[in-house]
Amino acid sequence: MAKSDEEVHQQCMQRFIKLANEMKEEGVDNRVVSSGLMTASAVYAIYTMAGNDGLLAPEGVDKVTEAYREQLEQVQLAKRERQQKRSVWG
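Now predict its structure.
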């Protein structure tokens, strides 16, 4: 059975987190790991939208920025929901 996009997304996310944790265990500061992941994400987002040598127009930068904002908001919402469940059950 083929995996859904959501399943593949979760697996990709877990692989990135695992790699980030490995870097942290090697002594790389969390802020440096986070910054490196964000830079890699930006490079790949530009590649995805404009190709290897392409540049984003200002509208493209806005689209990527909004997509990143939406991801941050989704993560924050999920964390809030987990905390609320813990406080009810805890």
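Helices lie at 5-25, 30-50, 58-89.
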